Amino acid sequence: MDQGAVMGISVWIGTSNRGFAQQAQEEIRRLFEAPVRFEWLAAGELFKFTVEESRERVVERILAGAPAFLRHMQPVEAEADLGEDLQATVAWLQRQLKERPPGAGQRIAVQVRKTEEGASGLSVPELKHAVDELLEQEWQAVPVAREADEVLSLLAAGGRLYFGRSAPHENISDWPGGAIRFRREEGQISRAKFKLLEAEQAFGLDFAQYRSALDIGAAPGGWTSLLLERGLQVTAVDPAKLDATLLRSPRLRYLQKNADDVAFAAGEFDLLVCDMSWSHRQMAKLVKGLLYALQPGGTAVITVKLMHKKAFQTIREVTQDLAPELSLQQAKQLFHNREELTLFFLKL
């Protein structure tokens, strides 16, 4: 039965970072007046939720709400008990697709996931390959990994297979489960660089459009390295040492000092970034003391440590501490965040 076709009811699978699914569920619950029912698929990170609202309305509300902890969602149009016979599974999917056949030349991303307890005999690569072949041979669709017209989502969890089709934007992230992957580069200074790369995409920023950046707590230099690659003049502040390869850049000014011991011209920077391991209140106090150096209209991208999982309280406190100079545009727990959150602000 196509569950999404039931008038006024839609079924979804939500994904969060491990340990933050309850926060994601709370975000969803706050967006709807109608009851929302939740069912765990993988404790702490993966759950099914049913909303007494149409599919279109759910997408509209969740995208407009810009949830911080809900990393990915996919519709559930059908589900079935999952066996270990690949041919039988593909035949079941074929029947689902025949209800609304893909168009010739349509670009379709097949995204297959399974939980650890999903199905011991299921091979994710084999199932994806088989579905790709089915799309090509029966409907002349074009299987792709990125820039798809439609996403076909399959999740194996708890002995069941969940199936849904959606436009990429309806899933919040067009990566499977929102798990965005970057290729590690030779000589890469730290994996922290992936956080800033992901933030650039998540917040719709283009760091190459900025002129001059202040990186607070820069060492060993993962964020500084990305900003230098984008062509910015970068002032890196940290009493610890930066990676030696960065020091050769003529666009780098490195101040090996505590951030509260430096001074700059008013409005000297149009971008401020900070990825520190301090408590969120200490970090906010330090950043606030340097906001005079960020020009009006400038951007701040800040990582906030989530102390004792008090996530919503942490966001409120940091936002209040940095007001009125900074206005929060979006908060997001990125795939490359762990016990932390990334915040995007504009300087008023």
From TrEMBL:
Keywords: Methyltransferase, Transferase. CDD domains: AdoMet_MTases. One of its GO terms (molecular function) is methyltransferase activity. InterPro entries: RNA_MeTrfase_FtsJ_dom, SAM-dependent_MTases_sf. GO terms for biological process: methylation. Residues 190-318 form the Ribosomal RNA methyltransferase FtsJ domain. Pfam families: FtsJ. This is Methyltransferase domain-containing protein. It comes from Paenibacillus gyeongsangnamensis. The lineage of its organism: Bacteria, Bacillati, Bacillota, Bacilli, Bacillales.
